[in-house]
Write a structure and sequence with these properties.
Elements: E1 5-8, E2 15-16, H1 18-31, H2 39-53, H3 58-68, H4 79-100, E3 102-103, H5 107-114, E4 119-123, H6 128-137, E5 146-148, H7 161-170, E6 177-181, H8 184-193, E7 196-200, H9 207-212, E8 217-219, H10 222-229
Parallel strand pairs: 1-4, 1-6, 4-5, 6-7, 7-8
Antiparallel strand pairs: 2-3
Helix pairs in contact: 1-2, 1-4
The structure holds magnesium ion.
Length: 231
């Protein structure tokens, strides 16, 4: 099937926030003296948490904080300590994000090549303005004709609304599109929209977890993603 459009998730596919999260997690583990925690497990839960709360207004975060902080690695810790830990982690992450984050090696070249033959869009659970700033910073804006953030949809991923909105604007069928993401929420959104779902295990979610959600294709990293397109 000839593909006409590719939708990219931003964080974890184009923009590499792994180092910022790793450093924030390490700081948190050290400051709160968390013992017997596995950093990979923490990374996975934190990545989901960060993705989820970044588009919530503060009152909603507070109202849902009890439920949001039901993460495994903080089991057995009092709610207030969990809250302090989460706020510390989020602040550290924001502190590192600008300085430590960059685009994945080779992804810019892949994007510029793909843009010659098909339409490209961004779908992020972050703010669309954030996506615009990141793309601008790395000279990638020119390749994307649609950017959708949480502010452009009523339901974020795993809801397929954003993908369907893009397909509608492009006037193409789900079978003519590919969605590339890095989280289980991306896989669910892609499957619900019935597009071809490619998942990159870029480091935030564990490969086994992603595999359980059965994307159409699961690749290890950006290098494998580039090989897959063979252009
Ligand atoms: Mg992502």
């Amino acid at each position: 099937m000839e593909k006409k459009g590719i939708i990219f998730d931003l964080d974890g596919v184009i923009y590499d926030i792994t180092e910022a999260i790793k450093k924030a997690v390490d700081d948190g583990i050290e400051k709160y003296k968390l013992e017997n925690v596995n950093r990979d497990d923490v990374m996975e839960e934190i990545a989901h948490l960060i993705e989820e709360i970044q588009n919530y207004p503060v009152p909603k975060i507070l109202l849902n904080s009890f439920e949001l902080l039901e993460v495994k690695f903080l089991e057995g810790i009092s709610f207030f300590k969990k809250l302090r830990f989460a706020i510390f982690l989020f602040n550290q992450f924001n502190k590192y994000k600008e300085a430590e984050s960059t685009i994945f090696k080779g992804i810019d070249e892949l994007i510029s090549k793909l843009a010659k033959n098909m339409k490209l869009a961004i779908l992020t659970n972050n703010k669309s303005q954030y996506a615009e700033e990141v793309l601008e910073k790395f000279n990638l804006s020119q390749y994307f004709d649609i950017i959708i953030g949480f502010n452009d949809v009523s339901e974020v991923k795993p809801n397929p609304e954003g993908i369907l909105k893009i397909l509608d604007k492009w006037n193409i069928k789900p079978s003519e599109a590919i969605f590339i993401g890095d989280m289980t929420t991306d896989i669910e959104a892609g499957k619900a929209a019935k597009v071809k779902m490619i998942c990159v295990a870029s480091g935030l979610a564990k490969k086994e977890t992603l595999q359980q959600h059965q994307p159409d294709i699961l690749v290890e990293n950006t290098d494998e993603l580039i090989k897959l397109f063979n252009i």
